[in-house]
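User: Before I run my own analysis I want an independent prediction to cross-check against. Here's the chain; please return only the structure tokens and, at the end, one sentence I can use as a sanity check.
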Amino acid sequence: MELLHNPMFLLLAVILSGHLLGKVKIFSFSLGSSGIVFTGLLAGFAGFSLPGVIQSLGLILFIYSVGQQAGPGFVHSMKRGGLALSIGAMVMIATGLLTALGCKAWFGFSKEITAGLFAGALTSTPGLAVAVELAHDSAAPAAYGVAYTFGVVGVVLVVKLLPRIMRASIGQEEEKLEQEMSSLHPQIEFTHLEVTNPNLCTGPLSQVLPARMAEVTITRVLRAGSDSPELAVAETILNMHDTVRVVGTSEALHQAEIVIGPVVEADLAFNSVLIKKEILLSRPEVAGKTLRALNLSHVFGVQVSRITRNGFDCPAGSNVRLRQGDVLHVVGNPETVENVKKMLGDDVRALFATSVMVLLSGLFCGLAFGALPLYLPGLGIFTLGATGGVLLAGLVFGAVRQVGSVITELPSTANALIRDLGLGLFLAVVGTAAGGTLVPTLREYGMPLFLGGAIMTLAPMLIGVPICSRVLRIPFLRMLGVITGGMTSTPGLAAAASLSDTPYAATAYASVYPIALVGMIMASKIIMLLG
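Assistant: Structure tokens:
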């Protein structure tokens, strides 16, 4: 037992045992990373404690990683169809905030208890982090621990019951969304056309192709009377009755057929002289440039047939701006393809490299901005604090992605490590600190503590479901993603995934999650400031 008084040993013991507890599943319920709170509560109840500086370090690491994770999708989630999804999530967060303030007035909760219940009911660890930073006591984590269990179970139950309550057919919903996605994101295809337009034979392809064919790419040419195709590059000059392979969407290929000539049956497989290669863009110096600027067909004599980005194939249009992580499908002879490979990088390890200086610079900027005095009419002078400043820095660094040759966005693997490490440090300390006050808190508030947490969990979903389905007209499967994302509930998303194997719920969850993360933090700040 003496060893447990060693802060480092106790810290590791609380985090490791918390992770083990979080992996225990009862049906589909598990605590996940919040298991650290409960092992911390147990350690605190037994009389052990941890230094507060560890909590501060864990807090800024965790909040910065949240900002990095939310940054790239924060602006995107407000565009196009994502706007309706984001509005649905914001309605849920606003409902949760109003419900929390109502419970505070009705049950007589303190602002610390209210913020802790709000964070636990909506399973929001960032919300708890804000409450702990502003409260400087252990009442919020104790309330969080009380409300968290129903916060998880309640969302799972609602998701499981919604299909019956709303009489939704999962099969019909899947089919409806499949048709919608097919019309919005047509698949990249190819066809073979015979050149019958003499206007295309008057000069190189870079000059004779009309503007309306910008969405297609001519990748191969089989000369009339020849048995082997050749690579199509910018300087290629077509002849009448040549056969060309054209790559693009079905609609774009139909336009190409009108311009070039009729569809023909042909085999344009390359011989051993030309090869096809998938090349990963890993060099930050190249990221951000367009295919037109790289001019690969003229400089290297290769053809880019398509680009794979985030698992989806995109047309290789000349104005497409490349990103790190793009996969370019290149055709050319072995020597030229190897040169293109060197220029683009093709190094998976580079995508996972993390600059410690960039990470520390982001944290430094966040803390500095959080301490900067700001003024708002009616509110006077205030500061964003450590969480607000670091969150803003993470959002900006993640959204900007790159400044010159410096990559400001953390790779997903590095960000996940920093997030889990920071979260573990933070939860271990706040859980341990709350352990000594858990029993007095329960004695003081008793059953209203559980009742308030349950109301805060159910109210956002009871309001969010009709708003999403009837007002915003969000399809059922996407609505499941909005509901679970608005509650920041990973177990809820798992329950939604068990209803349908399609990715629609998960995609909607990912779209609203950045908004929900930021919204939870702001709502927790409001609860603490209004108290």
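Sanity check: The radius of gyration is 28 Å.
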